[in-house]
């Protein structure tokens, strides 16, 4: 199959929204940004063996390639609208391509996001997705903005994906339907949560490389410090089933990464509104710490003791493997 036949077969769709003037099939896309809005743009690359294990089903790879980008827009309080896809393939495998495209496009339809362009080439498998979205002018959430006294809140249950990956790296065979594996392979982008807290939070980030490391980005950008309470971390039943309460490996929810949950700061007077908004959005949210004027991050264990972590999260150029 020639390159353009591949694009037409798996990735070309008729434009569904009037804001797409010209989509897949030309040298570039033409998009219409509505008045009173700003364009939000993010891009991520997934590499086989780095961002997803070799045995990951292609539909899950397609889902995750888009989900991690939608998560970035969720952290900005943006509404995703369009994506482009740069796909590098070692060979043409129709079965792999069809299920990969299905995983990506199924999630795109769930969020009413349209694929408007991209590129295909031959080489080691890698997937680069660029996502574009909209926020009303001047309303985007940022990492900068946290203030002393703000509460730190997190969606979902951090640590699930890291535990699944830890077991896979140890050579365990896991059921693809295992809740932990689903959290690793098919993360839920918290778009609705980001929209719900856009006017309530003071700063926000998504957890991709580890809760402590990503919180550190907010602290640095905002010029503040924080204390985290591990006793408040929301751990899932699937996570706890493999960890007795008195021997929890706290590095998994604190530094493991791959959660793609939202971590944000909120003034105390907005906490009730946050809980109400995220209940409507169907998303668990938990208060796990507070912002302080004193610089640095202090992590307290279940008994109030100070935890010292060897690392705060994943770094592509210093960490050899996840988690």
TrEMBL record:
HAMAP family in alphabetical order: TMP_kinase (MF_02128)
Organism: Ectothiorhodospira magna
One record GO biological process: thiamine biosynthetic process
Family to which the UniProt record says this protein belongs: Belongs to the thiamine-monophosphate kinase family.
List of residues binding ATP: 118-119, 143, 208
Highest taxon of the lineage: Bacteria
Residues annotated as binding Mg(2+) 4: 27, 42, 72
Binding residues annotated for Mg(2+) 1, in chain numbering: 44, 119
GO molecular function: ATP binding; magnesium ion binding; thiamine-phosphate kinase activity
Pathway the protein takes part in: Cofactor biosynthesis; thiamine diphosphate biosynthesis; thiamine diphosphate from thiamine phosphate: step 1/1
Gene: thiL
Binding positions for substrate per the UniProt entry: 51, 258, 314
Binding site for Mg(2+) 2: 44, 72
CDD domains the record matches: ThiL
Role: Catalyzes the ATP-dependent phosphorylation of thiamine-monophosphate (TMP) to form thiamine-pyrophosphate (TPP), the active form of vitamin B1.
PurM-like C-terminal domain sequence ranges: 147-299
Reaction(s) catalysed (UniProt annotation): thiamine phosphate + ATP = thiamine diphosphate + ADP
InterPro entries (alphabetical): PurM-like_C_dom, PurM-like_C_sf, PurM-like_N, PurM-like_N_sf, ThiL-like
Keyword annotations: ATP-binding, Kinase, Magnesium, Metal-binding, Nucleotide-binding, Thiamine biosynthesis, Transferase
Residues holding Mg(2+) 3: 27, 72, 206
Name the UniProt record assigns to this protein: Thiamine-monophosphate kinase
Miscellaneous note of the record: Reaction mechanism of ThiL seems to utilize a direct, inline transfer of the gamma-phosphate of ATP to TMP rather than a phosphorylated enzyme intermediate.
Residues making up the signal peptide according to the UniProt record: none
Gene3D superfamilies xrefs: PurM-like C-terminal domain, PurM-like, N-terminal domain
E.C. number: 2.7.4.16
Residues annotated for Mg(2+) 5 binding in this entry: 209
